[in-house]
Amino acid sequence: MIMMMKNSAKKSHSFFKEWSVMSLRNRIAFYYTITTAVLIALVFAIIYFTVERIVYKQFDDEIKKEVSEILSNSNISTHDFKGFESFQNRDIDAGDNDSDNDSIKKKKVNVDTEFIQLVDSTGQVINKSSSLSWCVLAFNPNQAGSAYFNSNFGGSMVRQAQVPLINKQGVTLGYLIVAVPLKNAMIVLHDLHDIFFFSFPVIILTLFMLTRLIAGKSIRPIEKVIATAENITQVHLDQRIPLPYHHDELYRLSATFNALLDRMQDAFQREKHFTANASHELKTPLAIVKGTLEVLIRKPREREHYETRVHSCLKELDRMARLIDQLLMIARYESNKIQPHIESVELSGHLGGIIERMLATASTKDISIIIDKTENARVAADPGMLEMIFENILSNAIKYSPTSSSITVAVQRKANTILCTISDQGIGIPAEKLNAIFERFYRVDESRNAGTGGFGLGLSIVKKLADLQHIKVGVTSETNRGTTFSLSFPIGEANC
Ligand code: ADP
After folding, report:
1. Could you give the count of Cα atoms lying within 13 Å of 325 in the half-sphere of its Cβ?
2. CB-ligand 1 contact for 444 (6 Å cutoff)
3. What is this structure's pTM?
4. pLDDT tens digit sequence for 414-432
């Protein structure tokens, strides 16, 4: 017993395993066939039972007509079936009293004609038609009212009615039983049954095979997606799925998958460039420091010589530290570890504090920072991130401005935004390069950036931090006349 249970558990387990690895097209074909099979079976059953009902109704109507004809010609008295002598005229013989019983028994029952039989309340045959020969029709003693049913008679099916004969006093004196042969009707019903029964599995099997074929054809593009996806590696990121002819869901799937590959390839390329640029930027100061130190230890030198060289090494190391800080910052916001802590910030006041700190650097180039219009506006922002944004833009403005020039900062309300602009009178940026300045490691011109110590990362960080706080960054510039950076803050709850 336990063994049997174990075996059946094993079987059901392997069934579910097979089911779970069943191909999509088989599963589609299976579900479709099951649903259609249920529907076809339902339609067949409805057709069969409707035809059967119509056929029986016809027989029942015929019997009803016969019964009413017999009853209209007869009369039930209080105690007996007096009026039923007319049965004789309807070919009724006294079956029980027949003297030549044997010869009648030898007669074959003619199942093609109608049969009439009169029984008393106990079911004793009183009179019957000669077509019944030596047979009697089935009598159901428990039947109270009129009823129509099928019964077996002489090896053939007949449709039969059993009508109670009730006198005026309401006493059931007996029953009139009328039957008609169902032979032809039964042949039709059997044929219909056989057609349905044998055609059903053929239809279902054909349907399953056809659905499987069509489903296989329809999902062929998915197989292409799988094959392409299996082929894609970091080296083969340029492979794409051929788009299907019809603009259907599979087309969208392929197009979406291709777009995903585009983005992956793009991100992978950017990552490669970023790593190459970062290592290049780190290699340069390292090489300078290494070279300086190697020269210094070759022979003893003057104290002043050491001091200048150590200072230049420290400068390079500072540069490296700045680069590493920026790289760490980029790595943190790329991995979404930095999330802004938005609060209501009084913009002009916040800006004033940052400008004050920058004044020392500006004064080294005799640059003045002018605060033009300052509206008392509050913005929704992360104060720390906002500080980083302003510091980067202002330090660029100082870096790329000539000595004794001025930088103008303004805060004003415009339409639905608070607009903050920082304008300098510096070297400017050529129009065709304006879009690229927010890219990582992008520097407009290596030669003019010489000595600025920038890595081309500042503005990419500005852009990312601004995006995180829904601040729009814009830039306009004219070569040798100056550049204006603008930050527009949406007026929200924090603004007033
Ligand atoms: P960097 O650290 O090199 O300044 P950024 O990302 O901050 O890098 O700036 C990218 C480039 O945009 C700079 O190399 C510079 O050429 C240009 N740039 C940025 N701000 C200004 C400005 N105010 N005036 C002129 N050029 C600028």
Report:
1. 9
2. yes
3. 0.56
4. 888 899 999 999 999 999 9
